[in-house]
């Protein structure tokens, strides 16, 4: 079984969660759910947002920037693994030297993590990463590079952790899990409950009928914490079910939608002066929107950021 290396999807700050929802609604109106606003509280709250964090239902074309200038060889490898998600879906990641939607750091000791789906757009500081690949170098084993990059890219595309499906969580012994993760990862009990013991609400996610224990989005869970003594193997690569699922979420030929067609989610910049009431120090002087975003949508996003 693959050794457990924790990944903690990054959450937007509590004061920005309402704005994150509004931005997600503007990016894809289908992100509106019937879940109550209270569903954004900590814990199960963050999981309920999965249905609300999808990118466009047309081509998802996201720019990528490496904040700490890794070697070209490593950049190529990371991008290749990110783009593996596009083998069956309308998904593409491409490097840019300027401001990008997805900004990757390799801060040692900070863990592996990514913001989930459209939450990436809430992080507008050009020097702030939206994904971290803990200490990765050209010497990182290819198997580990593949597993972690493809997993974190899954979060960027809106996927939550598959091991939080209820049928898996119900097999875990809470007391054993708390002791195990305290010993292996240094987690406090509340963190274990959040990362391992709080199941996804099925109504809040787009999911396959059954949990995929080998999905790239599944933690490996040892037999010692499982009630039935059967380990969850966990994923080391994107599975056939993963590829089928993302093809349904981001189909290459999207079904027609009412109203004007939306452009692919490409990064572009709009001077902050367009938002007259914002200070130039808030987010580095720029607000960033998908290329081709219509003016009414830009105005609505600015209004959401201002809390209007």
Walkthrough of the structure:
By secondary structure, this protein is α/β, with parallel strands linked by helices. The protein has a single domain, classed as Collagenase (Catalytic Domain) (3-Layer(aba) Sandwich). It has helices at residues 17-27, 44-47, 72-83, 142-156, 166-169, 174-185, 189-197, 240-249, 295-306; strands at 60-66, 91-95, 102-105, 113-114, 131-132, 267-271, 286-290. Helix 1 runs antiparallel to helix 9, helix 3 (72-83) crosses helix 4 (142-156) and helix 6 (174-185) crosses helix 7 (189-197). Mean pLDDT is 76; it is low at 34-49, 203-207 and 257-285.
SSE topology sketch:
Blueprint: H1 17-27, H2 44-47, E1 60-66, H3 72-83, E2 91-95, E3 102-105, E4 113-114, E5 131-132, H4 142-156, H5 166-169, H6 174-185, H7 189-197, H8 240-249, E6 267-271, E7 286-290, H9 295-306
Parallel strand pairs: 1-2, 1-3, 3-5
Antiparallel strand pairs: 4-5, 6-7
Helix pairs in contact: 1-9, 3-4, 6-7
Q: Determine Rg (CA atoms, Å).
A: 19 Å
* Low-confidence parts: 34-49, 203-207, 257-285
Shape assignment: globular
The CATH superfamily label reads: Collagenase (Catalytic Domain)
Q: What is the spatial order of strands in the main beta sheet?
A: 2-1-3-5-4
The structure class reads alpha/beta
List keywords for this structure.
Collagenase (Catalytic Domain), 5-stranded mixed beta sheet, two-stranded antiparallel sheet, 308 residues, 29% helix, alpha/beta
């Amino acid at each position: 079984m693959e050794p457990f290396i924790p990944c903690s999807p990054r959450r937007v700050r509590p004061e920005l969660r309402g704005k994150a929802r509004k931005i997600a609604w503007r990016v894809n109106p289908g992100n509106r759910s019937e879940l109550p606003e209270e569903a954004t509280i900590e814990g199960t709250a963050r999981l309920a947002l999965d249905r609300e964090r999808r990118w466009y239902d047309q081509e998802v074309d996201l720019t990528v920037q490496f904040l700490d200038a890794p070697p070209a060889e490593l950049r190529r490898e990371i991008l290749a693994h990110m783009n593996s998600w596009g083998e069956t879906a309308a998904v593409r990641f491409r490097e840019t030297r300027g401001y990008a939607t997805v900004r990757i750091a390799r801060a040692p000791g900070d863990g592996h993590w990514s913001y989930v789906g459209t939450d990436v757009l809430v992080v507008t500081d050009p020097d702030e990463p939206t994904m971290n690949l803990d200490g990765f170098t050209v010497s990182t084993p290819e198997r580990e590079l593949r597993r972690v990059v493809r997993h974190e890219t899954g979060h960027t595309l809106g996927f939550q952790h598959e091991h939080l499906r209820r049928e898996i969580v119900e097999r875990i012994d809470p007391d054993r899990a708390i002791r195990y993760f305290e010993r292996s990862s240094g987690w406090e009990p509340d963190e274990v409950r959040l990362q391992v013991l709080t199941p996804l609400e099925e109504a809040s996610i787009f999911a396959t009928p059954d949990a995929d224990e080998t999905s790239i989005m599944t933690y490996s869970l040892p037999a010692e914490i499982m009630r039935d003594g059967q380990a969850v193997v966990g994923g080391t690569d994107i599975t056939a079910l993963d590829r089928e699922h993302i093809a349904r979420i981001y189909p290459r030929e999207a079904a027609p939608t009412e109203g004007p067609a939306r452009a692919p989610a490409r990064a572009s910049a709009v001077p902050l002066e367009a938002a007259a009431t914002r200070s130039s120090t808030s987010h580095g002087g720029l607000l960033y929107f998908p290329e081709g975003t219509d003016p009414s949508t830009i105005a609505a996003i600015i209004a959401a950021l201002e809390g209007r």
